[in-house]
Design a protein that fits this description.
The protein has two helices and two strands. It is α+β, with helices and mostly antiparallel strands.
Amino acid sequence: MLRIIKADKVYGIVTLEMSKKDLGNIVDSVDSMSDKQQRTLLENLPSEDQVREKLDDYKALKEELRKIWDVLID
């Protein structure tokens, strides 16, 4: 279950508490979104800048979540 610990509306930052299972589900979802975006990009060459930027955002989020996951399982 997700729980909001702190929310800073000025900076748009939220601190969450979640279970290992929830984090795993989020990591899997971002991984799927990244794969889907990459397929879209490859199917529609030449691609739009917006599609490439979205893929870059998903990959960056995936990497950050992977780092959090690594801390949890170590």
